[in-house]
């Protein structure tokens, strides 16, 4: 899914260790979302085969946030792209893994799947980080500055897009224009609990700032009716 949606679209994060539950959610939200996200919890519990099963409902955003030496990440990308029929439409790696790692990931995806390769998305600063938590890791200057720094590096190294919080979307659009895919978690409809997310905004605000894809987990999967929750968020986005 390297092409950009015409208007901001929705991605449902299927965070559960239960593959049957995840498949049920995928089927229920499919009419309202562009992609569904398979993350570490589901992948580690259910194994790689879950990607193909979930992909029967919607294209899969495989969020394993690779961060290792270039050779190892290239191998991981080849592994998740090996089965063409079950290959993800998008995948994540950490921008902090550096330019050589990102270049190696892109090359591995191209070598394995050619034009059908997944979009490579670089995670910048996790949406759970405050400025204080980021400073504890040795990064001064705050999330916005670090997001811009990693974005510049990742896009120059061949990433198709970035994962950032709603609070950096406008700055990234100003700096890099409309081309990079901006995939944005930390989305909270008014009144829903932030949980462990620190840098958040509503779906309407995030779409208006120029996000391409909004990643929403618990506000959908924790709802009594996940399909209705996904439908309501999708309907709130400008068309
Ligand atoms: O890469 C991601 O998708 C991601 C990056 C990030 O900075 N923050 C973040 O929350 N995510 C993912 O987005 C989803 C957000 O879920 P909720 O907080 O439940 O809406 C989770 O599956 C996270 O793993």
Automatic annotation (TrEMBL):
One of its GO terms (cellular component) is cytosol. One of its GO terms (biological process) is 'de novo' pyrimidine nucleobase biosynthetic process. CDD domains: OMP_decarboxylase_like. Pathway: Pyrimidine metabolism; UMP biosynthesis via de novo pathway; UMP from orotate: step 2/2. The keyword Lyase applies. The active site is at residues 63, 65, 68. Residues 9-233 form the Orotidine 5'-phosphate decarboxylase domain. Substrate binds at residues 15, 37, 63-72, 127, 188, 197, 217-218. It catalyses: orotidine 5'-phosphate + H(+) = UMP + CO2. It is an enzyme of class 4 (lyase). GO terms for molecular function: orotidine-5'-phosphate decarboxylase activity. Keywords: Decarboxylase, Lyase, Pyrimidine biosynthesis. Its EC number is 4.1.1.23. The keyword Aminoacyl-tRNA synthetase does not apply. Catalyzes the decarboxylation of orotidine 5'-monophosphate (OMP) to uridine 5'-monophosphate (UMP). Belongs to the OMP decarboxylase family. Type 1 subfamily. This is Orotidine 5'-phosphate decarboxylase. The gene is pyrF.
């Amino acid at each position: 899914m390297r092409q950009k949606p015409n208007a901001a679209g929705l991605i449902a994060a299927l965070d559960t260790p239960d593959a049957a539950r995840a498949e049920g959610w995928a089927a229920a939200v499919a009419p309202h979302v562009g992609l569904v996200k398979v993350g570490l919890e589901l992948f580690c519990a259910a194994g790689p085969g879950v990607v193909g099963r979930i992909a029967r409902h919607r294209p899969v955003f495989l969020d394993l946030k690779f961060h290792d030496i270039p050779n190892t990440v290239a191998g991981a990308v080849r592994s998740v792209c090996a089965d063409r029929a079950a290959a993800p439409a998008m995948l994540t790696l950490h921008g902090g893994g550096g330019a050589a790692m990102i270049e190696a990931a892109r090359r591995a995806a191209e070598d394995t799947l050619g034009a059908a390769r997944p979009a490579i998305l670089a995670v910048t600063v996790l949406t759970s980080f405050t400025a204080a938590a980021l400073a504890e890791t040795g990064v001064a200057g705050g999330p916005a500055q670090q997001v811009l720094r990693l974005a510049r590096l990742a896009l120059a190294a061949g990433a198709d897009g970035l994962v950032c919080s709603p609070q950096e979307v406008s700055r990234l659009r100003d700096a890099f224009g409309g081309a990079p895919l901006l995939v944005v978690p930390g989305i909270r409809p008014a009144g829903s609990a932030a949980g462990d997310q620190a840098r958040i905004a509503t779906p309407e605000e995030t779409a208006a700032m120029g996000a391409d894809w909004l990643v929403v987990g618990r506000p959908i999967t924790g709802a009594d009716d996940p399909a209705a929750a996904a439908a309501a968020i999708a309907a709130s986005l400008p068309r």
